[in-house]
Structures are given as structure tokens and as C-alpha cells.
Amino acid sequence: MTASAYQEVTAQREEIMRTSVGIDYERYRTGVVAFDYERLFSDTGYDIDQVRRIQSRTAVGNTPLVELENITALIRLLGPPGKGARVFLKDEAANPSGSFKDRRASLSIHEAAKRGYPGVAAATSGNYGAAVASQAAKAGLKCILVQEAFDSCGVAQPEIAEKTRACEAYGAEVVRLSVGPELFTVFLDTLRETGYFNASLYTPYSILGVETLGYELARQVRERCGCFPDCVIATHAGGGNVTGTARGLHKAGADDCEVVAASVDLSGLHMASDHDFNRKSFTTGHTGFSIPFTTVPDRADVPRNAARSLRYMDRFVTVTQGEVFYATQLLAELEGMERGPAGNVSLAAAIAIAGSMEREQILVVQETEYTGAGKHPLAQLNLALEMGIEVLRGDPRDSCPGRSIVIPEHPSQIRVVDMNMDHLRERYLSHTLDSLPTTAVLTDTDIEFLAADIGSSRRYVEEKVYGYQGKSG
User: Fold this and answer.
1) Helices (H), 25-126
2) What is the mean pLDDT of the chain?
3) What angle do CA 459, 462, 466 make, to 5 degrees?
4) What is the number of other CB atoms lying within 10 angstroms of the CB of residue 236?
5) Which of 136, 157, 214, 448 has its CA 20 to 30 A from that of 84?
């Protein structure tokens, strides 16, 4: 794309977005930074029962809840007497394209068909592309997916190559790009040229689709155990999984359930770096996405992001790549379930967290994903070796993202590292304030919005804003 074409497309961004998702986001602005978040959802016209009916027409949702009895027994063996919560797994691999992303795509595709769009498009290198392609095929809509697929040497991650294969199998056109900033511009141009619906991960349709996951697992646990789960762990990337699951738990009445976000620690690696692109073994569910999207949620491909994870998470933990590979193998060998490693980020965190919970408590790992040749741990580890990364056995805390992957020698070596929630809130607020003109004055509505958006109090926000303005002014 030439520089002038780039500028032309970028200048039309707002109009392209409004046309491609059919939402006038300006209608929801209520302050300098505030917008009416809940009205954005209610104006879609869908409640959770309607979403569940729409998903059931394409066999999305109603996935099994599996109690991991052998992994629970292992956790109890490793921990102190009386400790070791019961661990359940929501087997989202049972969805049509093999992940919870079918829930996320289903309502967008339904909306696109209802409004008469000729097709759908999405920018994604993850499972979401396969989900959009699968749902579009079912609805008879054309589909274009834009992928960041390989580095400047043409080396593709096996996991992304696997996703390309799946998307093309569903009949989608896949535009494959090298790593770099052109992804979003090419995607905008695709929307402009085709007039397709933007099946963004970050619209209210996408989040409403995930709400059924939290709602469903809460009801399944209560039906089986007579109570709601005490803790649900969700793999965290762009925030939609955490946001939708937490909202669904709330709609089921599970308000006391702790929501834990879990990501693979890839600190030190830059997601937009050509050098680093193939030096990570996970394409999603890692800190390269989760930290930026937690602290700057509106960095999305729509003007206001409906996925706002900091509103909903009670705790945010990280695990290492080696721990996730180890958990993936445990799930296969102890429970007879071979699933893709990206879906097992939250399982690795669960093995550590369940060990500190009481035996009568219930913990749910809220997703799995399908596995395939490119998603298998061996494919990921072989690429790591080709890229010069050491693969070792030992204490996973000795690993260094981009240089080494250390796989535990014993399950007792699986631990979580807690992110500092106050530090995340402060980063969110400083990013927000830095983005404002110097003449901007926050209103009461803005303060209330910010307090809700970071899961804190009005007083906390006022103190931080006052302190920030004192430093900068």
C-alpha cells in the first residue's frame, strides 16, 4: 500500500467503522472520556436467552462441564491437608470450530445476515478467524480474514498456519501479511472496498456471545453441586473472554464468584517486532496482548471497546510457557483430553491456585480449544528450537521469554505470579489522562465511569487524578 493510499484510508477510519458495524458510537458519549457502556449493550436488542437460542441453531454452546478428578487428586497430593479445590473444565473444544470463539462470532454473523450485509470480515490470527469463517459458512455469507501470519523471512508460526488451513477449509478468503503496522490499514481498506460487516472481537455483539459461557457454566455447576463456583479462571488476551464470562456469571446470579484472569508471561517481547514475532510459542493469551488491552482498552478496531477486563477481574496472574506445555500434557495423560495449549493457560494457573483453596470449594477452568498438527506443543517447541531458543527441564521461573522455555520437572513447580492490580489501574488512568487535551476537564460522569472501568472507587480515582494533575501541572 502506498503512503497516499494509507493516509486516504486512515482519514476515513471513523466513517468506515460506523458503516461496517452499524453503530454510531458518538451517540453513547456522556463525558470527556465517559460513554454509556450498558446502553451500548441494551441497544443491540438481545438478551441472554435470545443469544442462547441463536447460538443453539448453529450448535454453538451447551458444551460439557468435565470434572478433572485425577488432576484434583494430584493437586491434593501436592498440597497441605484439607486443601485442594475440586477442578472442573468447560470443554469449549466441543463448539463447531473447536473453541469458545464460536460464541463470540455467532451473534456478529447473525447480525450481519439480519442487516443484509453481503459478507463479513475480521482481522485476527487466532481461533476467532476459524470461528467467523465457520459461522459465515453456516449463514451463507462471504468471509475475508486478515492475518498477521509470518515474519519478514516468510517463516510462519505453525499455530497460525493451522488457523489459515482451518479458515480456508470453511471457504474463507485469507489475506496473509507479515508482522507490522499495515494489518489494521489493510483491514480498513478491505471493509471499505467490500462493504462487509466488521465482525470485530470488540463490539457488544461479540461480548454478548461470550456471556453465555459464564452463564452456562454457573448453571451447570449449581445443577451438579448445588452451589455456584467459588472461582473461575479465564485466559486473558484482548479482554473479551474475561469481560463476557464475568458478565455471564453475574446474569446467572453467581455474584460472589472470584474471576481470575490468566496470561502467559511474555515480558520483554514486543508484539509488533519482526525479530520477536516467532520467538513466542503462543499467538494469544499472553501479556503482549493482555497488558496493553487491560490498561488501554480502546486500542481496538472499533471506537469504543466493549471488552473492558479491568472492570471485571478480581485477580490477574501469569504463568510461563513451560508451565502451560506441562499442564497440556497433564490434561492428556491424566484426564485423556488432548487439547490445544493456548486453552490451557488457565488450566496451568488453576493447578497452582486450587492448591491453596479449601477442598469443598469449586474452581472452573472456563475453556479448552481443539488441537491439531500446528497447535500441538511439539510443533511450537520445534519452531522455538529453530529460532535458537533453549528448551530445558527444570524450574520454570528460570525461563526467559524469547531465550529459553523451561518445562517443569514436577507439578509442584507450577506457580502463578500475581500482577499488581493497583499498578494496572494507575497505568490505565495515566494513559487516559495523557490522551486528553490540556484544556480538558473531567466531569462527575467521567469520574464515575473511570471508577467503574478500573473496578475501584470514585475516591480512588479522584485521588489518583489529583495526584497526576499535581505532577504534570
Assistant:
1) 37-42, 48-57, 69-78, 101-115
2) 93
3) 145
4) 33
5) 214
